[in-house]
Design a protein that fits this description.
This protein is of the alpha/beta class. It folds into three domains: about 90 residues, Rossmann fold; about 210 residues, Mur-like, catalytic domain (UDP-N-acetylmuramoyl-L-alanine:D-glutamate ligase), CATH 3.40.1190; about 140 residues, Protein-Tyrosine Phosphatase, Chain A. It contains 15 helices and 22 strands. A nine-stranded mixed sheet has the order 6-7-5-8-9-10-11-12-13, sandwiched between helices. It has a seven-stranded mixed sheet with strand order 19-18-16-20-15-14-22, with helices on both faces. Strands 2-1-3-4 form a four-stranded parallel sheet, sandwiched between helices. Strand 3, helix 3 and strand 4 form a beta-alpha-beta unit. Helix 8 crosses helix 9.
């Protein structure tokens, strides 16, 4: 744990006592702050009490004596309306921050030479974060990985010279981190998401851009959508060092994909820097973008291309994101089973559907706005769809007359049916792909548990050779 000493002797209110909130309270107490913690969930308040954290309803405290409110990222700050704790803090003129801000304040106070690579974007954040951490570790660097990827940043090892931090940051967390100044900031892409939290796509894009706007050495920006292109242009005009990345077009300056090669262009002259051919964990155009951004970031902090290429080849991939689980030999070839449970919206599912052909697609769950109509360009790749959860009927209507469908309802039946049909198809390498384009909450607590269920069921099928 990283003790937070920046509020020593001061009173700090903490609201939201999930994993990151509870850890924030503990880190502040360890660092000498007077913490008052609360949550709308009584059981979480009891957990905090058991951990020795002072708890009190924040309606009852004297806000004039509070130095800051540490708000859990999932608690509404502005939309659809501010949480009552945020209303009280704003009324008292108390700054509202999050655990990423505590991390940044402590990093600055420590004075240690600790590079920070921060990654955001609508899609690809977790893969890029995991890939960069892997590349650094492969090169012998003590790389600490955390943030929105699942490990709260304050749970990482304390700051020490030579230690690097690779942190995934969501828009919710950026909102609460005014001191975020990464060594290298990465903005992968922006597409419509979390509008219930941010109100408009313009607000959402502006918040995402804040992460790269404050980067100290380089702002690495994927420029394949209008929001990120605009951000890159604005930052460059403001005098920031911008490194552009594209997988859709050749660039005059920056990194771009040419087939399976990542190219580096300077003043219109380009040369290959790394090769992605044969790296199954980095299949697809979206992973080319992830890899190119990772290469740009690692080069910015001094890694050599040889070290980066070696790390790319050994990257195992991210659990639940196009994770190759296993294969099964057939008379015609083999079936590949892929766990893409992390694809909780259509845009994310498009990345997987665009990476394979001859797909036996398992989709559905708790639907997101927009459904799957935007995936029509990928329908010819799909041999059959197996639909589960609340979205099954709506998805079936969208696919009617375009893709054969079977409403299986639950994941286990979908896997059995897809495996059966794939084996009977006679195709050389059919793919049974779980890429739900939906949240999991109708049948599973989160996408990780959904993905684990898929993996466990697949590995229990007869004749499966494990890959993950």
């Amino acid at each position: 744990m990283i003790p937070v000493t920046t509020f020593v002797g001061q009173t700090v209110a903490v609201f939201g006592l999930g994993a990151s909130g509870l850890l924030s309270a503990q880190a502040l107490v360890t660092g000498g702050a007077n913490v008052i913690a609360w949550d709308d969930n009584d059981s979480k308040v009891e957990v905090a009490k058991t951990a020795g954290i002072k708890t009190q309803d924040l309606h009852e405290i004297d806000w004039s004596k509070v130095a800051a409110l540490v708000l859990a990222p999932g608690v509404p700050l502005t939309h659809p309306q501010p949480h009552w704790s945020a209303v009280l803090a704003n009324k008292a003129g108390v700054e509202i921050i999050g655990d990423i801000e505590l991390f940044c304040l402590q990093r600055a106070m420590s004075g240690a030479a600790c590079p920070l690579i921060a990654i955001t974007g609508t899609n690809g954040k977790s893969t890029t974060t995991a890939l960069i951490a892997h590349l650094l570790k492969s090169a012998g660097i003590d790389a600490q990985m955390g943030g929105n990827i699942g490990v709260p940043v304050l749970e990482l090892k304390d700051f020490a010279p030579g230690r690097a931090y690779v942190v995934e940051v969501s828009s919710y967390q950026i909102d609460l981190a005014p001191s975020l100044k990464p060594t290298v900031g990465i903005l992968l892409n922006v597409s419509e998401d979390h509008l219930d939290r941010h109100g408009t796509i313009e607000n959402y894009a502006a918040i995402k851009t804040l992460l790269v706007a404050s980067a100290e050495q380089a702002a690495v920006i994927g420029v394949d959508d209008r929001w990120t292109r605009d951000a890159a242009d604005r930052l460059e005009r403001a005098g920031r060092k911008v490194v552009r990345v594209s997988v859709e077009a050749q660039l005059r300056d920056g990194y771009y994909a040419d087939g399976t090669r990542i190219m580096r262009a300077t003043a219109g002259k380009a040369h290959p820097v790394v090769q992605l051919a044969g790296i199954g964990s980095l299949r697809g155009a979206h992973n080319a973008q992830n890899a190119a951004c990772a290469v740009a970031a690692c080069r910015a902090i001094g890694l050599e291309l040889e070290e980066i290429q070696k790390g790319l080849v050994s990257f195992p991939g991210l659990a639940h994101r196009m994770q190759q689980v296993g294969t099964k030999k057939t008379a015609s070839g083999r079936i590949l089973f892929v766990n893409d449970s992390k694809a909780t919206n259509a845009d994310s599912a498009a990345k997987a559907l665009g990476s394979f052909t001859d797909i036996y697609w398992i989709a559905g769950g708790k639907p997101k706005s927009g459904g799957i109509a935007s995936l029509a360009e990928f329908f010819p790749r799909i041999k059959k769809a197996y639909l589960i959860g609340e979205a099954a009927q709506d998805f079936a209507q969208t696919l009617e007359g375009k893709v054969p469908t079977e409403i299986t309802g639950v994941l286990s039946k979908a896997i059995d049916a897809a495996a059966r049909d794939a084996e009977a198809s006679g195709l050389k390498e059919p793919v049974v792909l779980l890429s739900p384009a939906c949240a999991s909450f109708d049948q599973y607590p989160n996408f990780e548990i959904r993905g684990k269920a898929f993996t466990d069921i697949v590995l229990a099928l007869p004749g499966i050779a494990r890959m993950a």
